[in-house]
Amino acid sequence: MFPLRFDVNGETVEVPVTTVLNGGYAGRSQEDVAAHVAELAELGVPAPTRTPCLYPVAPYLAMQTEQVPVQHDRTSGEAEWALVVAGPEERDVLLTVACDHTDRALEVHGVAWSKQAGPDVLGGRAWRLVDVADRVDELTLTAWAGGRQIQRGTLAELLPPQYWLDELRQRGLLRPGTVLLSGTIPMDAEVDQFADSWRVELGDPQTGDTLSCEYRLDRMPEPVA
User: Fold this and answer.
1) Surface-to-core class of residue 170, CB atoms within 10 Å of its CB (0-12 exposed, 13-18 middle, 19+ buried)
2) CA distance 35 to 24
3) Are 59 and 20 in contact (CB under 8 A)?
4) What is the distance between the alpha carbons of residues 27 and 21, in angstroms, rounded to a whole number?
5) pLDDT digit string (tens) for 151-172?
6) How far apart are CA 82 and CA 98, in angstroms?
7) Which bin fits 106, alpha (ψ -120 to 50), beta or left (φ > 0)?
8) Strands 75-76 and 120-122
9) Average pLDDT, stretch 9-38?
10) Superfamily of chain region 2-219
11) 122, 129, 136, 207: least buried by Cβ within 10 Å?
């Protein structure tokens, strides 16, 4: 098991991670998703057989880190929120900020492969989902690549946490140790996503509180082969 630790209103909650799932093509408007799938297909990214998608990745890929090693310069993050099932009760479901770092060169050969090639970076603080459930669509999601804002939106643009909770329950995965990332919102095409750093913030306009995760990329040496 790979433990994550969260500050939840001053309380430290440790979660031994057993299952990690990445949502994909998870926009609230599936008509817009279909258009996006068509655009990606023109770039060589294989189209899914259904949307939204759910990609299992290795549990050790859920990280709380400030540095991400990469093999080349065609990788980038994605602003997301994450559900973390910390215990058996409803109040044990945590909501935090996340960045799904993805290998874009590998993505054209298979989205699932590209998800497995990079980590899911999570923030060190979290909210209990029950505490923000009444205003979850108002929460904001913002990302910066290399210091430039590349994504900005609200959770209303994505399928809601309850959708994914129902999906997990149906699949027998709503259990302690499960982490699920939401899928992402559109990027600003004018901003270079292949930057040397990423920062993502999940904000609550009602309280002014913000959860964040931030990391730099570390280019690994060339292989000797």
Assistant:
1) exposed
2) 14
3) yes
4) 16
5) 999 999 999 999 999 999 999 9
6) 6
7) alpha
8) unpaired
9) 85
10) Fumarylacetoacetase-like, C-terminal domain (3.90.850.10)
11) 207
